[in-house]
Amino acid sequence: MENLNENYEIINLFLKGGPVMFILLGLSILSLTIILVKSFQFSKSRIRNTHFLEPIYKLINKKDPSKAIEILSQKSHPAAKIVMTILDNPNNTAEDNENEITRVGEIEIRKLEYLLKPLEVIANLSPLLGLLGTVMGMIKAFSKLESVGSKVDPAILAGGIWEALLTTAFGLIVAIPALAAFYWLDGRVDQVREDMRHAAIKTIKLLK
């Protein structure tokens, strides 16, 4: 029974925040979905694990690129795609290699960056929507205050203000984890970009 009362109070607070709360709720669900999707993608690609490259470098050094390609084809890390691109085209000139590495690298980075921009937009937009809801709530509160004329009750103003501030609070609740997740995921993408660059340089150096 106590849990039911608590749930009812939470729902009641949510409804008092006005229509902006529903927009923020939708953004929070979208934000959580993006975070889960990207976390699954990064986990599946095992982007933090580049240890598999060391045996590949040894095989390249031993002039056994076919075995290296066979192992790389089973890896989903973007750096594996870069190394495999170089090994698949041994007769390419330095310029051709650079162009192909750039092309494949851009494709892989775009895959990792997919949905990060919407997450950043949600993180930046949520506090503004919260502030908008608060301003609308304050206008409503002062409008009620004006309608009572000389019979001013401070409780009316206080109640209107705290109800208005609910949207600002909810906007920050949505924005903070979204922004933290964006920076964390974006940092992982930057790390992958560096891993790809280092893998390309070392592979080309070993093939010379």
Question: Could you describe the 3D structure shown?
Answer:
The radius of gyration is 27 Å and the shape is rod-shaped. The chain has 208 residues and is mainly alpha-helical. The protein has helices at residues 2-16, 19-45, 53-61, 65-72, 78-88, 94-113, 116-147, 154-207. 85% of the residues lie in helices and 0% in strands. Helix 3 runs antiparallel to helix 4. It has one domain.
Features:
single chain, 8 helices, 0% strand, mainly alpha, 208 residues
Short description:
With 208 residues, the protein is mostly helical. It is built from eight helices and no strands.
Give the class from helix and strand content and strand pairing. Answer: mainly alpha
The percentage of residues in β strands lies in under 5%
Q: Could you report the average pLDDT, rounded to the nearest whole number?
A: 86
Order of helices and strands: HHHHHHHH
Compute the number of strand runs. Answer: 0
User: What does the radius of gyration come to?
Assistant: 27 Å
Oligomer status: single chain
Separation, N- and C-terminal Cα atoms = 75 Å
Number of domain units: 1
Estimated helix fraction: over 70%
Low-confidence stretches: none
